[in-house]
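Work Package 3 committed the consortium to producing structural models of liganded targets before the mid-term review. Because experimental data for this complex are still outstanding, the team generated a predictive model from sequence and the ligand definition alone, so that downstream docking and mutagenesis planning could proceed in parallel. The input record is reproduced below exactly as it was submitted to the modelling pipeline, together with the SMILES string for zinc ion.
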Amino acid sequence: MRVTNSESKNDQPAITPGLDGCQVCRQLRFEGPEDREYSIVPAKGGGWQAWSAALLRLFQRIGAHPTQAVVINQDALTQRYVQVLIGHGIAHAEASSNVYLMNDSRITTEQEELLAALGWLTPAETEDDPGKMPPNWYLPPIHGDWLMLVEMFVATMVGIFGFDDRFPVGIRTFAAENPCKACSWPDES
Ligand SMILES: [Zn+2]
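The resulting structure, written out as tokens with the ligand in place, is given here.
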């Protein structure tokens, strides 16, 4: 995704070209943050309230930076997850849809109604298309309201997806494929 193990000289790009070969994205990927992965059991540290406050601090810390992806899951219990592309003060949030979920992890019709009631928009497609955004439940673009983002995530994870505070919750952060503002948010420039 970012730096390749290239044997090339200086006149060859040592960084994987972005979706459009954007020079700004290339530089940002070169400077960009490493992948990070945390795993926390909320019940061991103040429950969902403290966990939510920590997630808010994470979004406040990275929200204005070049775009990163944040994926939150609870692998021990379910395939369900929430994720967000966040950067330059804007966020695109998603909640997993049945396009990606199997067996017990699939979302019931009743749960889908709850997602819609909470404000999630219905997935745009019914199948995965690698060239497009994933067909997950999604929110309209969020402009800096990270508290709302955290509240939506926690309400979804705990209230609908069945995340349990006694089990580890994984948080993975990594640089977006195209982290510059113009590539991340072409409709916002
Ligand atoms: Zn770019």
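Reviewers should note the following from the model. Residues 22, 24-25, 178, 180, 182-183 surround zinc ion (CB under 6 Å). These observations will guide the Year 2 experiments.
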